[in-house]
Design a protein that fits this description.
2 helices; 64 residues; single chain; alpha+beta; 22% helix; 4 strands; Alpha-Beta Plaits; two-stranded antiparallel ribbon; globular
Amino acid sequence: MTLRITVDRELCMGSGNCQFWAPGVFDIDDDGVAVVLDPAAAPEDRVVLAADGCPTKAITIHRD
């Protein structure tokens, strides 16, 4: 099963929690908004923690 991760750029406040929980998967761009670099860079459970820990719930995980 492949994970597809989306970040709602309107909701994201750039807290960096996603980078903490799933380093390599997420980064903060020049606008201070989270972006997905590589969905496979961290184990799925860490990606789920990143989504759950997002203070604005801007991260959505889709299982394709």
